[in-house]
Please model this.
Amino acid sequence: MLKINNLNAKIENKSILNKFSLNINPGEVHAIMGPNGSGKSTLSNILSGKKGYEVTGDVVFDGSDLFKLETEERAHRGIFLAFQYPLEIPGVNTNIFLKTSLNAVRKARGEKELDAIEFLKLVKEKAKELKFDEEKLNRQLNVGFSGGEKKKNEILQMTILNPKLSILDETDSGLDIDALRIVADGVNSLRKENNSFLIITHYQRLLNYIKPDFVHVLMNGKIVKSGGAELAIELEKKGYESFS
Amino acid sequence: MRDKQIENLKEYKYGFSTDIDSIKAPKGLNENVIKFISNIKKEPKWLLEWRLKAYQRLKVLKEPDWQKPKYPKIDYQDLYYYSAPKSFKDKPKSLDELDPKLLETYKKLGIPLQEQKRLNGIAVDAVFDSVSVATTFKDTLTKQGIIFCSISEAIQKYPDLVKKYLGSVIPITDHYFATLNSAVFTDGSFVYIPPGVRCPMELSTYFRINASDTGQFERTLIIADRGSYVSYLEGCTAPMRDENQLHAANVELVALDDAEIKYSTVQNWYPGDKDGKGGIYNFVTKRGLCQGKNSKISWTQVETGSAITWKYPSCILKGDNSIGEFYSIAITNNHQKADTGTKMIHIGENTKSKIISKGISAGYSDMTYRGLVDISKNAKNSSNYTQCDSLLMGNKCGAHTVPYIKNKNSDSNIAHEATTSKISEDQLHYCQQRGLNSEDAVGLIVNGFCKEVLQQLPMEFAVEAQKLVGISLEGSVG
Amino acid sequence: MEKQLKTDFKKTIDSSDYSQKEIIVKEKCLNEFIRSGFPSKKNEDWKFLDINQAIKSKIDNLNYFNENLPNELDPKIYIDGLEHNKIIFINGRIEKIDFKYEESDKFEIKDQFDNRGLLNNVNSLVDLNLALATKYYKILVKEHYSFKKPLIIYNITTNKISSKNINIRLDFDLKSNSCLKIIDYSIDKSEKNFVNIVYNFSLEKDAIIKNYKLDTAENDNIKYSYNNFNLDTNSVAENFILSLGSSFIKNEINCNLNGKYSSAFVNGIFNLDNNKSHEIKTSINHLNENTKSYQLIKSVLGQNTKSAFQGKIFVKSNAQKTDGYQLSKAILLSDNAEFNAKPELEIYADDVKCSHGSASGSLNQDSIFYIMSRGLNYNEAKELLINGFLLDVVEKITDNEIKNLIKNIMGLKE
Model:
């Protein structure tokens, strides 16, 4: 589904990713772990199409050259990024934002756009599953939300947009145990044959709730070790030092 | 020709013109033209004298030049001051007698005049070039004693009301364009709400400039008698022409004790093409007088059109406890220029005013918010809150904020806040990651930026305004 | 007026040894002034304070020649408790220059006329100043030199003069990485004169100027001060204006942030009573990337007083990442007080952070009540609140010694 081959990324002449390669097949859950500054967020930014990076290498998503697609086209084809720092957009109602983006994605996929009633039914159902306070859906997008609420809002958007590849950029940071479980439930509910996940995290604790198929250790812009779920536990014990 | 029109329509939806025979006053501005206008409208003698007095005054006034947008000198002798569809010489008694071409025009504008195609319970007065062509829902309104008709009709039927209030808020000695209007105004709307009546529907006027070389000088007068309420909407469009057209209207509002007037405008005059050729000069004087105690006047405007917009809908808060509000969205793109804002003059005690202004400039355009808050010595315990936010898109455009603040009363408070910002890359990226294209993302963020003002508009207008906000900024995102 | 001006101009020229070049410039400026006269209310920049009207009503037969009078210097006037260098003007003529705390090879004082930075065409008062200022001095601070002690410029007027126009002009040239602190201090024993002061500062990269202007002495003169700054890369201009004593004064500050990372600060206090009319007008021109400006102006207005703040932030289209901030606040203590503000933004670049705010009103009665409930009387409570309101601005002063001096002068308590 996603094939990254020899990806190099620079920002203002500083090299951040260095011959980074990764393959994700349909249905797989990959976790990327690494210390601060190892290039984790750069990876999610590049995959989602954020501008400002100098990039070389190949990234193929579902048979298309990813770099030829605009940010929104990537979203239409099923890439979803749960942002590390979800943005606040003043004046824009959360529900309206969700409906607009869902219909943009559905339209691009040739699916019928949802009317207000259908949408509200869907969003209510998903919000309930995630124990997301419905009242917040009528507030301005992320404005005045706590850190945890913002992250839950990302997961809510994810379950509604039903992406093929979900990238979770340090979604676990700043979450308490209950919120962590809710986030994990959201991810697990989407876990199907064709849906893949790339979980970027600093700590192992989220992986207690979402069992990854593969764990990769990212250091200085490169994967230095790959393994199964057990690698995360080893990492937690030994620390990143032992891999450098 | 058709093809070209269709081509044009894509850019400015309302850019068609209608071929209708019209009667025009001779070109130019002089006493004879003013007499011609007054005569053709069968006006009483006092009004002709009033017009001529304004004209005398005009001769000594100078065109103001302090505004930010400069414009080429207007040759006032090269304009028609009166243009009316020929079939109107004997005004039709009912809509059935209207020139079908006119009806067609309004249909294109989305304003069905036939009452059977009711527009969600909005009573419409349509002004085509210089004259009011039709007013809908008359019967329903008349039952409640509400007068809603063209000002020409009001001059004939309700001369006492017109005489009492015309020029009471904008005197004939006011500034250049207001005085010009007083001398040559042709038509416009007249509204009178009797004491204690809450007008059951939105009243609306649609203005359209059709004829070329024609200035449009309409005059609107709204009087809300004691304890009454009215919400009034104004929409405007014009055909696309290469030359600039002048629009210098006067709008006067009077609110007596406990009365409230809500006046909303969606201004979408032709802004000129993307190189700045053509377009309307919109030099309008709008002023409301809160004459009575506890009265309230609220202006809401969405300004997206015109080559140059130059207007300051104002409130004179004379009655104790009166309230003035101004909510504005102004968008300029390409080579458009706008210098707009408000004046809140606090005279009575306990008067309150609120100003929310959202300016967005894109392309090569230039936007100025200019406002005055003046709390006079006797306006005890008064207050004003002003918020002006500007959004810039690109660095070829300008955004300016020029508030004048005068506080002469120690019991009164004035608070003013202004910010200038841009749409952040991160916000755009976030929206695009959720599947919105860049223009939709900008539209969404801009509508969010404008929300406080959009909320003030009546429902039907708000939807239209939201779309307009998006359309006006098309092509402004790289 | 024209006749008087021409006669007095001739006397001025005859009484000194101006170069031919200088005379030509002076004549040009004189003619400019004659053409436009004193600015009146009709002039947008003078909307709030009408200097033309003030001069007309207060001063009879204004004359412009500043003859050399014998003066005595009273050392008691010197500011106490702060070692400082001095320039002393008495009635518009330099009486004494004393830079004893500085290394003599690190600065220069020049009196040659220099065509650069003439500041002609700024406004008619600057023209008048240029035409009639008796002497033109420039203080040059050499590279990498920081003045050890502040320079206090004493502007003294004595009771020997009346109905006189006094013009003072000083230029400051700060070479790269140099630093100078100035206190502009006026002592007026005269009345009914028009004092017109122009300072022109030019800062090379990394230079710092701290400019503190103290108008503390009660007087019945009309005053105008124009300070111009040109700032190169990473240089800083800090301004503080204490506007208290004069019956009529307008302080104008113009800063051109020409170099990247240059910054300008203008903080000001009006604390007025008894028929005083004061104004501060600023223009901060952001002309390059990453420039910064900050302005905070506070007014406390008593009986029959009027203060005005006109502050403009201009951002040129290439001045991306500009950070501009401006806030004006006023407390009106009397029904005969008037606060005027025109905070203006003119912005042509999109990646900027600019904001301004203004708030005016009465003393917060809830706060008064709260303080009184703790045992203070009304006047004490009022003073406490005003003290806090103004202290905020004084705290912005970055030089501690001068900050404490100003606190003492104002009687502010911490």
Remarks:
- Residues 438-454 of chain B form the longest helix (17 residues).
- The interface with chain C takes residues 66, 377, 383, 390, 392-422 of chain B (CB under 8 Å).
- Residues 2-472 of chain B form one domain.
- Confidence is low (pLDDT under 50) at residues 1-10, 89-93, 114-120 of chain B.
